[in-house]
């Protein structure tokens, strides 16, 4: 994928599905259904009890990457920089406990997407200075997908960042559903990232469609 400009990243963040083998028995089937529903970006996050490692992690990553490539949506790897490079991923997402975004940028080069989780204005400013292409802001609402999530912060940080004039693409994360997505968009998020709202849905395709409709209508109203 050629270099990702800011507008392309902003657009891709509308419905950012995140999953790994811990979140669903068949990540590939759920990813296919999410893409049918209109998912605009995917993050392979292989973390938590029972997460795959080594060759199995790489093999699943290759399948998920090929699925994203066929659909033309960005394929992002969470945390694991070696895996991101081995898979020729479109980008990588790192948290505050991972390597600084500046080091990541030097490793992956200018043409790939670097996403960073930020929980405060200081963390956001540092990530931007380090060359982040987007920030993951949350948890906005209580989340069931991450056992070591930070304190629920509502839309406070989203509003603070936008009021401070930060224009970088921002994606909301944490407990987002079709019913509350508009709140995050109205507060300045360019999209929502979800794990269980899609991975645990009876119909992931329908869940994505409903989420995307909520995001799209809230974006129009902004
Ligand atoms: C912990 C995380 C926080 N935010 C995001 C994203 F939505 F991609 F920004 N991904 C993560 N894995």
UniProtKB/TrEMBL annotation:
Transmembrane segments: none annotated. Mg(2+) binds at residues 79, 98. The keyword Lyase does not apply. One of its GO terms (molecular function) is thiamine-phosphate diphosphorylase activity. Its EC number is 2.5.1.3. It is an enzyme of class 2 (transferase). 2-[(2R,5Z)-2-carboxy-4-methylthiazol-5(2H)-ylidene]ethyl phosphate binds at residues 143-145, 175, 195-196. The keyword Transmembrane helix does not apply. InterPro entries: Aldolase_TIM, ThiamineP_synth_sf, ThiamineP_synth_TenI, TMP_synthase. Binds 1 Mg(2+) ion per subunit. Pfam families: TMP-TENI (PF02581). Pathway: Cofactor biosynthesis; thiamine diphosphate biosynthesis; thiamine phosphate from 4-amino-2-methyl-5-diphosphomethylpyrimidine and 4-methyl-5-(2-phosphoethyl)-thiazole: step 1/1. 4-amino-2-methyl-5-(diphosphooxymethyl)pyrimidine binds at residues 43-47, 78, 117, 146. Its cofactor is Mg(2+). PANTHER family: THIAMINE-PHOSPHATE PYROPHOSPHORYLASE (PTHR20857), THIAMINE-PHOSPHATE SYNTHASE (PTHR20857:SF15). Belongs to the thiamine-phosphate synthase family. NCBIfam families: thiE (TIGR00693). Condenses 4-methyl-5-(beta-hydroxyethyl)thiazole monophosphate (THZ-P) and 2-methyl-4-amino-5-hydroxymethyl pyrimidine pyrophosphate (HMP-PP) to form thiamine monophosphate (TMP). This is Thiamine-phosphate synthase.
């Amino acid at each position: 994928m050629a270099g990702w400009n800011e507008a392309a990243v902003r657009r891709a963040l509308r419905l950012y599905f995140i999953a790994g083998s811990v979140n669903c028995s068949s990540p590939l089937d759920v990813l296919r259904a999410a893409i049918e529903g209109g998912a605009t970006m995917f993050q392979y996050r292989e973390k938590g009890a029972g997460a795959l490692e080594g060759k199995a992690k790489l093999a699943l990553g290759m399948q998920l990457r090929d699925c994203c490539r066929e659909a033309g949506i960005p394929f992002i790897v969470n945390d694991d920089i070696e895996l991101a490079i081995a898979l020729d991923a479109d980008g990588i997402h790192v948290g505050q406990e991972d390597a600084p975004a500046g080091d990541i940028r030097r490793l992956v080069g200018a043409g790939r997407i670097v996403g960073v989780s930020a929980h405060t204005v200081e963390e956001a400013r540092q990530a931007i200075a380090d060359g982040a292409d987007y920030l993951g802001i949350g948890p906005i609402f209580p989340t069931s997908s991450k056992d070591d999530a930070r304190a629920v912060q509502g839309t406070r940080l989203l509003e603070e960042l936008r009021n401070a004039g930060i224009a970088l693409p921002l994606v909301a994360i944490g407990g987002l559903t079709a019913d509350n997505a508009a709140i995050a968009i109205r507060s300045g998020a360019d999209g929502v990232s979800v794990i269980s709202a899609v991975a645990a849905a009876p119909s992931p395709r329908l869940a994505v469609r409903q989420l995307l409709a909520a995001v799209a209508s809230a974006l129009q109203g902004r």
